[in-house]
Write a structure and sequence with these properties.
- Chain B: One of its GO terms (cellular component) is glutamyl-tRNA(Gln) amidotransferase complex.
- Chain B: Belongs to the amidase family. GatA subfamily.
- Chain B: Its EC number is 6.3.5.7.
- Chain B: GO terms for molecular function: ATP binding; glutaminyl-tRNA synthase (glutamine-hydrolyzing) activity; transferase activity.
- The structure holds two protein chains of two kinds.
- By secondary structure, chain A is mostly helical.
- Chain A has a domain of 37 residues: Histone, subunit A (Orthogonal Bundle), CATH 1.10.20.
- Chain A is built from three helices and two strands; from the N terminus they run αααββ.
- In chain A, strands 1-2 form a two-stranded antiparallel ribbon.
- Chain A starts with 5 loop residues before the first helix and ends in a 10-residue tail after the last strand.
- Chain B has one domain: Amidase signature (AS) domain (Amidase signature (AS) enzymes).
- Chain B contains 16 helices and eleven strands.
- In chain B, helix 9 links the parallel strand 7 and strand 8.
- In chain B, helix 10 crosses helix 12.
- The relative contact order of chain B is 0.14.
- The chains are: A mainly alpha, B alpha/beta.
- The interface between A and B is large, with 58 and 74 residues.
Chain lengths: 99, 503
Amino acid sequence: MPSISRDEVAHLARLARLAVTEAELDLFAGQLDQIVAAVAQVGQVADQDIPPTSHSVPLTNVFRADVVRPGLTQQQATAAAPAVEDGRFRVPRILGEEA
Amino acid sequence: MTELTRLDAADIAAKIAAKEVSAVEVTQAHLDRIAAVDHAVHAFLHVDTERALAAAKAVDDNAAAGLPAASPLAGVPLALKDVLTMQGAPTTCGSKVLENWQPPYDATVTQRLQAAGVVILGKTNMDEFAMGSSTENSAFGPTRNPWDLDRIPGGSGGGSSAALAAFEAPLAIGTDTGGSIRQPGAVTGTVGVKPTYGTVSRFGLVAFSSSLDQAGPCARTVLDAALLHEVIAGHDPLDSTSIDAPVPPVVAAALEGANGDLKGVKVGVVTEFAGDGYEPGVAEAFTAAVDQLRALGAEIVEVSCPSFDLALPAYYLIAPSEASSNLARFDAMRYGLRVGDDATRSAEEVMSLTRAAGFGPEVKRRIILGTYALSAGYYDAYYGSAQKVRTLIMRDFDAAFASVDVLVSPTTPTTAFKIGERTADPMAMYRADLCTIPSNLAGNAALSVPCGLSDGLPVGLQIMSPALQDQRGYRVAAAYEVARNAAQGGPLINRVPELEVAH
């Protein structure tokens, strides 16, 4: 069974936008290796022809009536924001220095 | 502790309706109890004192004006798990990332409770984003089990279960993604119900694993759970996975079951959920419960559900995968915590630093695991296979329910473990959900009802019903509850040790 390396955990954490410490990497790599080994049991059915289930309730195309209803006001939407400027969400720069 | 806090919800509602006691007196008695014991239990993250009293007064005013009660639970206090939004109070999900976050809208469950005249006392503690089986993953400290304060109250809804067992509230709301209502119910000697997926709205329930999350009732009796079930269930257009079907007649089933006759009911014992890993005291209490069901007239048969052995591994791929996607919303931009925004760092750096500071270890582990399971090259082997297992589990349930009315098993393999005992070993923690997970993956109804003690700690009997047949489990549970109370000298919950009261 594939095991999960420390470098792989670091890569996954970057993909998930999680800054992890060296100590966390050490801890998580060992634990995730155990967890992955355990969950890999599902591989028993990998080559069987079984339809996948993503959801227990077979509902498709659920539409609501095309009626206007009130949403949040600008004030409500920004009330819990970490930073607001001129009634808008203020966010850090999106582009890198080199861009 | 006053007598009022010992009463069941149905009795409280009857006394309020008969004007023997006011809703305000009932609410005050529970607020006093919280003030007296929650320092030791830590079931609540937020106590909503003033609004609870105002809601109770509204019920009394309504009655004084001669108007009919809003529901059979009007004036009854309730503890709300902190994963459901309620305006005017924080919704934290047990996470630093949402510390002090005030939601701009109410969950449908919250709205239905308020419309029914149920008095919401406050928000209960939980494992961070409902990930855990012990409430130790809360960023705000663990909740303690009233049966033994050194032990866990189950999780993720340990605040709700502990509030019931500590007589801080007669009713609570939990959410169950892998067992987070039933396992806490089992280890605190209370009743916990996971309704059929799609029958209680998820609108305003902060998402962990959307295809599995389901809110449900927690109480000290089966009838109380049924009464609460009928208040919160029903179709909601704001949740696109909500099932547009009548609410199963769970109150009628609980009342019917209380007659104590289970003749004609066929009960299947799941053979996979026994043996190694099951505490002897749990196995004994379960066997005695099955004997009790037989004595009530039920026909008992053994049923094998072979795919249930793969339920735990499938769950720990599906739930983290969905979680890694759902929790991407905590990006430090629109709400919640923001760390490191010093005008030099980029949005991406701020996002990473915020998520590192805001999420606890279990949430991080699951995000990384989910990211792994969904990544190119592993998707088919892990997530794809887990979805196939989900199909097999549904087939096992279908085959079983073709020959039996309900399935039974222990709710969880052990009684409440010690705080700290499993925190360093995630797989040991995950195994607490071994018996509860299949019903999340298949979406059917399942509940836990107290079935005795093992070394002084409560054991739960799990009763599983087919989807949209929730009433079957209620009938069997109510019949069992009456018989167990008669055989074992009254409700189990009355044997909770007295908590030390603060003055």
